[in-house]
Amino acid sequence: MSLPVRVLVAKPGLDGHDRGAKLVARTLRDAGFEVIYTGIRQRPEAIASVALQEDVQIVGLSILSGAHVALTQKTADALRAAGADDVRLVVGGTIPKRDVPRLEAAGAAAVYPTGTPLEELVESMRALSATEGGRSARG
Amino acid sequence: MGDTVRSESGIPLAASYGPEDVPGLQSIPRPGEFPFTRGNFPDGYRGRTWTIRQYSGFGTPEESNERYRYLLAQGGTGLSVALDLPTQCGYDSDHPDVEEEVGRVGVALDTLADAEILFDDIPLDAISTSFTINGTAAILLAFYVAVGEKQGVERSKLRGTIQNDILKEYVSRGTWIWPPRPSLRLIADTIEFCAQEVPRFNAISVAGAHFRDAGANAAQEMAFTLMDGITYCDEVMARGRMTIDEFAPQVSFFFYTHGDFFEEIAKYRAGRRRWAHIVRERYGAKDDRSCMFRVGCVAGGASLYAPQAQNNIVRVAYEALASVLGGVQSMFTAAWDEPFALPSEDSATLALRTQQVLAYETGVARVADPLGGSYYVEALTDEMEARVAEIMDDLERRGGMVKAVEEGHLQRLISEEAFRVQQAIASGERAIVGVNQFETDEDPPEVEGYEMDEKGRIRQLERLAEVKRSRSAADVGATLAALGKAAAQDDVNLMPLLVDCAKAYCTVGEMVDVLKDEWGEFQQPAVF
After folding, report:
1. Is the pTM of this model over 0.80?
2. Nearest residue on chain A to B173, judged by CA atoms?
3. I need a labelling partner for B525 at 20 to 30 A (CA). Which of B217, B287, B374, B409 fits?
């Protein structure tokens, strides 16, 4: 039996709409992930520091305010600065199609725009945690 | 749930209804009569149709001003101002943590100078303005009063609404600043100030909409909202300076209308009746107008879906119809492309036309409460009211709303319901066309959306810097110091001091920080 995958669900920036974040957190927990939820209005540096402390393999950002590109970039930078480059970053929320490549360029390993079926999201995150770059060998 | 057919909020439904299901059918008071189940006015919408009020605002004050003038020229009858998140959370545009949010989901207002531009050439004595603002509502009210003064409009002629409902922010919308207790005090200050100085302005719009969008069902939405209304009224009444009749007419409410057609109609009718009884029985109102439940609503929100997104046009139209049959006083219809981005001008105009067709072509507004006396609608109204009362009683027994919020109890109830609905959609128990029924394989549409213009942000920062250079540092220091001093005392109304700060061109962030020094910040319980 492998250890459960640890995920941090996080809300960066000032956007307070967290129905999606909580649904995803709960769905992942029911699917066997270990889930930590930050609450809303978190600074990217704070998210990186929790990710490190909690030793998570994946950080999932939920952003509905339109500021997803800048906030993803800032969180990716903060993770790198904290020495957590091996943590995979994924992003969901109100995201127009044209922004998906921009988010990937900013460091997102996967993007889940509004309307992504939850089972698809769970499968995608399972696959991510199994690939190199995930923290497979934590102590 | 077996084979029982239920409404979205779980009310079991018979196959048909008859007179035996509606005790007192013959004696239901007419529209305009207490307890206003059938509407606030004897002539329904004949005297005044509902206010068509489209939520709008983005970028800089200049851009928003242009959009408002366009909407008014298209026949809009009121403005609804969307503020950006830094303004809502009390940060200035030049705060280092918020640069990517400036002007994004609404307009950035840092000082009175921005508010002057926002309302340039818009006569404040001729229109009404609704502000979706909560944490910083008192500050925005101060700006509005000050702009009115500059335009030469007396306070008594200003019409509009500030949302000013902080309790639901802690639970579901998230633009809190200070902890609940001092926030309630500031809200009571605005209610007093409006009653005395700005009598045609609604000091608060108690909003269930955000509970709903976060996952609450229709009965919970109404119950939580009425409980919040009680909490605010209790706060004002506890001061002993005003009677309920002096301020209740300036308390309004705000909801989402979602897809279960008859349940939504019943929700509004039940809410009107429950509130009327609360105001009369709990607070001893003598004037029936105090007991009226004034309601604005949004059609759209979480009832809209991304797949086959143009279906949202149809959903919004039905929701708008339910809202009117439910007797709302104002309405915002959402645009079909909102699951993807801020609406384009085309989709926003179509949403506006949806209401105009309803108001001027369909004839549904010709007669007050056309569904009154329907066995089904009356029985559903009774059942909805009973469920609302039950949820409210439970919250009262647990020690009231502030406690429920601080403990995360309300947050948990809402997440539970959101999860239940998600599962019902996943299993197909709740049908959503294009999502779990009649699906098609199609790419999401290319939406125009709104791309924040970096130049706009820079102009905003330059104006803020210019205001800071040109204002009187002595006035800023003096008005902020007076505000801080008054905040430390419980019995001083802060509104006149905030108006002084606004007129001295203090920034939103400066005023917020002075109050943070006195009151601290809210600590959220992160439950899911």
Report:
1. yes
2. A16
3. B217
Cα separation, B107 vs B120, in Å, equals 14
A66 lies within 8 A of chain B by CB: yes
Euclidean distance between CA atoms B359 and B46, whole angstroms: 11
State the number of CA atoms in the 13 A half-sphere of B134 facing the CB.
23
For residue B463, the one-letter residue type is: R
Q: Are B174 and A40 in contact (CB under 8 A)?
A: yes
Where does residue B182 rank: exposed (0-12), middle (13-18), buried (19+ CB within 10 A)? buried
Note if the bond before B180 is cis, omega within 30 degrees: no
- Cβ–Cβ contact B408 with A under 8 A: no
Taking the C-alpha atoms of residue A108 and residue A69, their distance in angstroms, rounded to an integer, is: 10
In this structure, how many other beta carbons lie within 10 angstroms of the beta carbon of residue B466? Answer: 11
Q: How far apart are CA A108 and CA A32, in angstroms?
A: 23
β-strand partners of A7 = A35, A58
**Per-residue tokens: A62:** 């939920």
Report the residue from B98, B339, B342 with minimal CB separation from A14.
B98
Under the banding of pLDDT at 50, 70 and 90, the label for residue B1 is: very low
Q: How far is CA B320 from CA A32, A108, B216, B325, B481, in A?
A: 41, 39, 20, 9, 48
By residue count, chain B amounts to 528
How many residues are listed for chain A in this entry?
139
Distance in angstroms between the alpha carbons of the first and the last residue of chain B: 25
Contact status, residue B197 vs residue B246, Cβ threshold 8 Å: no
Of A19, A38, A65, the CB nearest to B101: A65
